[in-house]
Amino acid sequence: MGLNIKDLKITSPDIGADGQLADRHANDRDNTPPVLHISGVPQGTAELAIICHDPDAPLPWGFTHWTLYGIPAETAEIGADADTRFRPGPNNFGRTGYGGPQPPAGHGPHRYYFWVYALHRAVEGEPSMREFLEKYADAIIEQNRVVGVYER
Fold first, then answer.
1. Superkingdom of this entry's organism (predicted)?
2. Where are the alpha helices (DSSP H) in 20-127?
């Protein structure tokens, strides 16, 4: 199946025009996920998945902050209650659910990619980000992202 990147959109009123994420989203503060708006979900989508990943983390594979599965295709908003409404998976903090930004002090700005994936089949269980991408890459109809920035 060919990848279509023109229709699916993800935006956030919590990510400012300059891309900044507020302190309330940080792991060591309120640890509240930003609100995400989803539109343009392609026909044939069985489920949506969300992954938040920091490629700037000083680790070989970056740092996964959030994996979220079981999101119905008609969902237009992912809010602060997402981990109770949908199926959270593991993050690199060793927990499940949202774990906000926590870059090392003085390491400079880190980018937080909030990816939305439209899938033609449902995700089973709660895979890690790498497991998800390996097992479900062929099920991705479309994907898109919004990027937030956070610095200590």
1. Bacteria
2. 82-85
Residue among 149, 146, 148 nearest 50 (CA): 146
100 within domain boundaries: yes
DSSP of 42-73, one letter per residue? PTT--EEEEEEEETTSSSTT-EEEEEEEEE-T
Look at residue 116 and tell me whether its pLDDT is greater than 60. Answer: yes
Whole-structure pTM value: 0.95
Q: What CATH number does the domain containing 33 carry?
A: 3.90.280.10
Percentage of the chain exceeding pLDDT 90: 93
Using alpha carbons, select from 7, 108, 110, 122 the residue that is nearest to residue 70: 122
Whether the predicted pLDDT of 85 surpasses 70: yes
Asked if the structure places residue 66 within a domain, the reply is: yes
Angle among Cα 97, 132, 142 to the nearest 5 degrees reads 100
Q: Is residue 43 part of a domain?
A: yes
